[in-house]
Write a structure and sequence with these properties.
It contains 20 helices and nine strands. By secondary structure, the chain is of the alpha/beta class. Helix 1 runs parallel beside helix 5, helix 4 packs antiparallel against helix 5 and helix 8 packs parallel to helix 10. The protein starts with a strand and ends in a 9-residue tail after the last strand.
Length: about 525
């Protein structure tokens, strides 16, 4: 084995790896914690962060569970049960930076688990270190890190732990499977697939138990609890995303089973599933292909994403592929183990060191991180005249005031009872529905809603980003028309107006006439 000499002692590289791993993970956590906070300060975070934080804030401080950013009860359309645990920490430190830190600690623990799994299966090799470096460089993880905050991301380390203990520790398998499913209701489909895998690997009763648990969890969460919180209706996401196949879960499943060729066309051609598989595989040197039995665990969630008519679910640079990451890395390790048994290339001074696939993996990891990663636009990490102007604007808003604000601004104003993303509620956008307003999120259905100025009487302040970044909701002509009419009818007066931001305050002393 290659050795490093320090004074009179000789220490092997293998013995140094755990220290290197801890330093690598701490660096990973620190770098992304700093970058995400810089993005937030520079107003490059958006709607997803605002909705998640308002929900956690409501849980932490026992507020009414109606999320005004989602337009629904916190439990109506997404079962983020894990938010109950996050809320415990958030009650003591109610700050956005805490959400970022918890997310990165969880993903950092995922890196430790990747290393431990690799070290368990592959001895006397540098591969565990290299696969952990690949984890820290993985472009999908980078995008997840820098795309707001999502409770479902916490499922990554829990699924890794569940698979790590699947063959040896049934109690820990159960614990981490439950924790993973607490992160979001659809994690149960990945847990179901792990159960199928265990059956094929000879752990029959363990697999059957996991399948039963995942089915029971899905029925309770999706079939019982979510409709209770959604006024007796099943989540509208089902119709928006999969309505082309049927109106009910039974109709959708029956249609898909009856039309396998359509499934193949939708997933791999129309929705780009083949390109997605290429992109998620290249950062791992396509090692997952050497373990197709493990890779099959991601199949249910892959289908959920690529059968959907909601285009963001087909993208690598968002959070929708989070549950694929644990499976891809476990498959890479098992795939390399199978390759390792067949390949041994001798190098001078190093016995049986299979250097070629390891170096190839490192090269692929670096290249894919550069090619597919989120670091091309450095402006989002830097302060600017725009960010300074927006900070001045939000400082004008009282902490308890109700507000409607642009996408990049609303994450800074979400911790309050009434917070909307402009132009909601004057225009129904990113709005799921409430007991008094049955208009659903029409932007998802491809419809073009008008605007109604009789709504929004509870909005005391409006804060509008006049020149948002290209990837965020623009300040459209329709939005400008809303603002003009609100001012012309004397419902609002201008509090601040410059080239970057417009702040309006509701006029309290004058009669407001509905339009």
């Amino acid at each position: 084995m290659a050795q490093i000499k320090l004074t009179n002692n000789t220490i092997s590289i293998k013995e140094k790896v755990p220290v290197i791993i801890w330093l690598l993970i701490l660096l990973y956590i620190g770098v992304f914690f700093i970058l995400s906070n810089l993005m937030h300060i520079s107003f490059y975070t958006g709607y997803d962060l605002a909705g998640a934080e308002q929900g956690i804030w409501q849980i932490a401080f026992n507020k009414e569970q109606f999320n005004t950013l989602w337009g629904a009860n916190n439990w109506a359309n997404r079962m983020y049960v894990f938010n109950l645990l996050i809320g415990v920490f958030y009650r003591f430190w109610p700050a956005t930076w805490l959400l970022f830190l918890l997310q990165y600690i969880a993903l950092g623990i995922g890196g430790i688990l990747v290393y431990k799994f690799a070290a368990k299966h592959i001895k006397n090799s540098m591969f565990p270190l290299i696969i952990t470096i690949a984890y820290c460089l993985y472009p999908m993880l980078h995008h997840i890190n820098l795309f707001d905050f999502h409770p479902d991301v916490f499922a990554i380390p829990f699924l890794l732990a569940a698979i790590y203990f699947a063959m040896t520790r049934p109690v820990l398998l159960l614990l981490f499977s439950v924790l993973a499913m607490m992160c979001k209701e659809d994690v149960a489909f990945t847990v179901f697939a792990i159960g199928i895998y265990l059956i094929f690997k000879g752990k029959r009763w363990r697999g059957v138990g996991l399948i039963g648990l995942s089915i029971a969890w899905s029925i309770i969460m999706i079939g019982i609890l979510m409709p209770i919180f959604n006024y007796g209706k099943i989540t509208p996401y089902l119709q928006w995303f999969y309505g082309v196949y049927g109106n009910t879960p039974g109709e959708i499943l029956a249609y898909l089973f009856m039309h396998p060729y359509l499934v193949f066309y939708k997933v791999f051609i129309e929705h780009g599933g083949s390109q997605y598989l290429f992109k998620v595989g290249i950062g791992l040197g396509f090692l997952p292909l050497l373990a197709p039995d493990v890779l099959a665990i991601m199949f249910p969630h892959f289908l959920i994403n690529f059968l959907s008519e909601f285009a963001p679910q087909h993208r690598l640079d968002l959070h929708y592929g989070a549950y694929d990451i644990p499976v891809l890395f476990i498959a890479s390790i098992i795939g390399y183990k199978r390759l390792y048994k067949k390949m041994s290339i001798s190098v001078i001074g190093v016995k049986s060191f299979t250097f070629f696939p390891q170096i190839a993996l490192l090269v692929f990891a670096i290249a894919s991180s550069i090619w597919l990663g989120p670091f091309r636009d450095i402006n989002k990490f830097l302060p600017s005249e725009r960010s300074n102007a927006l900070h001045s604007a939000i400082n004008l808003i009282p902490s308890r005031a109700s507000v409607s604000a642009s996408e990049c601004i609303i994450p800074h104003l979400a911790k309050r009872d009434v917070a909307y993303m402009f132009s909601n509620p004057f225009q129904r956008i990113n709005w799921i529905g409430s007991p008094t307003d049955k208009d659903y999120a029409l932007f998802l259905a491809g419809e073009e809603p008008g605007y109604d100025l009789s709504r929004g009487k509870d909005v005391e302040y409006m804060v509008i980003d006049k020149v948002p970044p290209p990837s965020y909701y623009p300040f459209t002509d329709k939005m400008k028309a809303i603002v003009k009419e609100l001012i012309d009818t004397r419902r609002y007066r201008i509090l601040l107006d410059n080239q970057h931001v417009l702040v309006l305050k509701q006029v309290q002393d004058e009669e407001i006439t509905d339009i």
